[in-house]
Amino acid sequence: MSLSLFAAETLVLDYLNGRVLPSTLHLAVVLAVETRLLKGVMPVLDETLCTEMDDHATAPPPWSSESVLRATQERLRILRALSET
Predict the structure, then answer these.
(1) Are 81 and 50 in contact, with CB atoms under 8 Å apart?
(2) How many CA atoms lie within 13 A of 25 on its CB side?
(3) Smaller CB count within 10 Å for the chain: N or C?
(4) What pLDDT does 5 receive?
């Protein structure tokens, strides 16, 4: 995976914040974001892309890999905070 594709995927996943898109739309958005990154177009996530993602994003199923990962990360954050005090 190229660095630009990784950056685009990361931006999209960060914007979605745990929500999921249909796979074909997800791929199309990631490729559009990668193109904008490579061309230096700002903002990378413009209103049109954000609206499209918001219109089609859904919450992950209760026991999807994303929800388990999110719960694990939250638990790790709590444990780290407790160990620092």
Answers:
(1) no
(2) 15
(3) C
(4) 92
